[in-house]
Amino acid sequence: MDLRRRLVGYLGALLGGLMLMAILINLHSLRADLNAEVDASTQLVKVLLAAGQPATSPAQLQALLGEAPLRHLSIQPGPGAAAGESSRSWLSALLGLAPRHEPAQTIRLGEQTLHIAPNPASEIEERLGDTVRLCITLLFYSGATLLVAWWAAHRALSPVRELEAGLQRLARGEAEAALPPFALREFSRVAGAIDDLAAALNEGRAAQRQLARQLIEVQEAERKTLARELHDEMGQTLTAIGVTAAYLERHAGQLDAGRVAECAQDLRRDVKTSGEQLRGMLRQLRPHGLDAGGLASALRELVGNWQQREWGIDFQLTMPPALPALGEAAGLALYRVVQEALTNVVRHSGARHCRVSIGIAVDELRLAIEDDGQGLPASAAAHRGGLLGMAERLDMVGGRLEVAGGPGKGLQLRVSLPLTGEEQQEEQP
Q: Residue 100: CB partners within 8 Å, gap ≥ 6?
């Protein structure tokens, strides 16, 4: 049942109850009016019958008139009674109604003289009673309407409090909103949306934890690689330099000029090798010149290094001769995305060909990395973590990442990186 049907049901029940109440009040008022009319008519008959009896004195007749009121008439017995002037009630005075002077009708019944005149005060009192009953009905109707409206609103909004409690549970970091089933269709849809939101939050938290773990693993792997290279490569080179220097120190006075020159050449070679190793490590840690137009050469060197290694994968790079001078953050993000994507191709794809293509649109730089490998299987958690890291890195510089392909269909990564006005001007010749 939806909310509109339930509210219509509440309103119908309220109107039906109030209509029944109004009918009952009107029936009660009608019964009271009928009883009053019958009593007044009976009293009039009694007065007329008593007036026609010879044994009835004026005092007895006056006492009989005082037993019950007459409606719409005023009867005064006796030959000296005032006639032609009706009574004036307090309501007539309040409303400013002047008393009407109607000629009284005088009749004789036996020994009695009766003066009969109209009495509007009884009609005013009757209308006043009807007005009071109507006001009571309206007051009761208003109070009942307020009570029913409050009850209906309280009952209709009780699911809202459940929804609020579920959202608060999600805000506290709980995995589920733990919402009860709702009878109303609208609240059921809202509860379904909150459950979807909870699932999305759980996925986001899981992805965030996975990304944090991957970041720690990457940092540790980089430190391990750097330590190994420093120990295996630069350590050996520095050891060779130290051995040559120690040899010169021990035999400084015994060596001829040719031997000294040979030792100097060995030192120069080892120092050069050490410098190349150091530049390679620095380039791996953070390429230089990405913010000053050196992005194209850095990408060519990166793809060329992968191509030179014996991985059994044919790497190809297609891009314009010159790229716009991106900002430092944007250039580094693009370089890291290509670096991570090529690493994933080598480690996970099993591909034979990989193509990297870069193009320039009107207001953005577009990068596409495609391979013919096994695609992205459902169990490749590490691969998805790498894609999440790429997306986060691109999002920091306003870019976006799109992933296409499936199991056995290869993997296609498409990157869009916005260009500022200055970068577009530098691109034009």
A: 86, 118, 120
